[in-house]
Write a structure and sequence with these properties.
The chain is an alpha+beta fold and 487 residues long. It has four domains: 30 residues; 274 residues, Neuraminidase (6 Propeller), CATH 2.120.10; 30 residues; 122 residues, Arc Repressor Mutant, subunit A. It is built from nine helices and 25 strands. A five-stranded antiparallel β-sheet has the order 15-16-17-18-22. The longest helix is centred in the last third of the chain and has 27 residues. The chain is globular.
Length: 487
């Protein structure tokens, strides 16, 4: 068969295309998706990133049995992370020359106990609540310890098992007050004969006529709001509260802070329906009042400015307080008596606090406070704090204070090696141990100094009597009674 020059050139082009096609596809796959590039560009924490993704992590980074499992994203101020559903695996994501790289930062060994947990960020802390595994759901609050590189459990006043969290829905995080809200916790325990929830024909229905449980993340205390949540809707994140995204022609925002329900306008419904098209395949999140959305597989990206003015106040409350009917019966004189009583208590409180502060041996400085071991001024976020409590300390800081306090009660100081063990630094080199240990104690002393407006540090150190090259740590005696109040 004879071929002319044109036919030969066409055959060569086809062969070259077939040879280069796999390499072209690989290059396209390695390109950083637009939505991930945007996430990496933001230099602030994002409380919740909604939506699942798959195949974001390279298969050689994931065990074979987990390669088909859902993956989720969390974003602190400094870094973006990818986790694997049902495991404690956490990978730091970076972008180099438009190619994603993943570095595993956790040392988790066990998996399978927290499928469909609520994953969120408050400040620089990554949290995970609830989840299903080993035939039952749990109500544990876990946080990632950046020192030990492991997930640790924060103690709560009680356990409310729940595992009905899907891609950022079913819960809401109030970062301003550091609270976690959830509607109608679904408890699953396959070891009990009474567990028939997943056999019910209504098992897949959304929450309806269920209470609202609120967790104070810092103090670990639960509160059940009076009344019931009366709406059967798919709930997810917004800066103002729960947002129903099950029906784009009529959406609601449930503002839990102000106990108000807002209904979207017709113009807004037209705009938002385009953004939320096929939301299950999208990653989406809020930065302030701007909604960002994108599809990793299709490499799409979009944004929409959302304002609370796009919604109308319906005049209805999110929940009904049981005390409303009684409050209406209070007479004018009853209110007057209540106000007077509050005024007297407030006055007494101010006098007691003033007396306590004047009795301190050390003078207070209202602006920048320095201690013997502190070289940087106190952050403005801790100035003028009137009350001290565990709420200003991170969980790992509370654990360190408790250990030093307990050892001091027994008549012993705490060695640097013991502190390294508490902070998960035992396997690190000496320079990292020294820096992290110093940063942790400095942070504790700064917060304590700001709270009590005192130049006297909470945690001090002294040379070891056995080895002058080493230090031992202890709680300053004048603070012993105050430290007791933390626990």
């Amino acid at each position: 068969m004879n071929f002319n020059i044109f036919q030969i050139a066409m055959i060569r082009s086809i062969i070259c295309f077939l040879i280069l096609l796999p390499f072209y596809s690989l290059a396209q796959k390695n390109l950083t998706p637009k939505i991930i590039r945007q996430l990496l560009s933001f230099k602030k924490e994002i409380p919740v990133i909604s939506g699942w993704c798959k195949n974001l992590l390279p298969q050689n980074e994931v065990p074979k049995e987990l390669q088909n499992e859902f993956q989720y994203l969390v974003k602190t101020k400094a870094d973006l992370y990818c986790g694997i559903n049902g495991t404690g695996r956490l990978y730091k994501i970076t972008d180099s020359s438009n190619t994603l790289t993943f570095h595993r930062i956790d040392s988790t060994y066990h998996s399978g106990s927290d499928f469909f947990a609520a994953n969120f960020v408050i400040g620089n802390n990554i949290y995970s609540f609830g989840g299903y595994g080993f035939w039952k759901s749990n109500g544990l609050l876990r946080y990632f310890n950046t020192y030990s590189k492991e997930w640790e459990v924060q103690k709560l006043t009680k356990e409310i098992p729940c595992n009905n969290f899907h891609a950022g829905s079913g819960f809401w995080v109030d970062t301003g007050y550091m609270k976690f809200y959830m509607i109608s916790p679904v408890t699953r325990n396959e070891g009990l004969k009474s567990d028939t929830f997943f056999l019910s024909k209504n098992s897949k229905d959304s929450a309806s006529n269920k209470n609202i449980d609120v967790l104070d993340v810092i103090n670990g205390t639960w509160q059940e709001l009076d009344g019931s949540f009366e709406y059967n809707l798919h709930l997810t994140q917004s800066p103002w509260g729960f947002w129903s995204v099950g029906n784009f022609y009529s959406t609601y925002i449930f503002n839990l802070r102000n106990n108000k329900i807002y209904h979207s306008s017709d113009d807004f419904n037209k705009k938002v329906s385009k953004i939320f098209d096929k939301i299950e395949n999208n990653i989406w999140f809020f930065i302030d009042s701007t909604l960002y959305s994108g599809n990793i597989d299709l490499n799409t990206f979009d944004s929409l400015h959302v304002s609370i003015n796009d919604f109308e106040d319906t005049g209805r409350p999110v929940y009904h307080s049981k005390n409303i009917s009684n409050s209406k019966k209070i007479s004018f004189y009853g209110w007057l008596l209540t106000i007077c009583l509050i005024g007297l208590l407030s006055l007494a409180y101010i006098l007691v606090k003033r007396k306590k502060y004047t009795s301190l041996n050390d003078s207070a400085r209202p602006a920048e406070i320095f201690t013997q071991d502190i070289r940087t001024p106190v952050s403005s976020s801790f100035k003028n704090i009137e009350l001290i409590g565990s709420s200003i300390f991170a969980p790992i800081e509370m654990e360190l204070i408790r250990n030093i306090f307990d050892r001091n009660k027994q008549g012993h100081t705490v060695t640097a090696e013991e502190i390294n063990k508490i902070l998960g630094l035992s396997g690190k080199n000496s320079s990292i141990q020294k820096k992290n240990r110093s940063d942790m104690i400095t942070s504790i002393n700064r917060k304590w100094a700001a709270a009590y407006r005192s130049q006297v540090a909470l945690i001090e150190r002294q040379r070891s009597s056995d080895d002058k090259r080493s230090f031992e740590y202890f709680i300053k005696p004048q603070w012993v009674e105050k430290v007791k109040e933390l626990f």
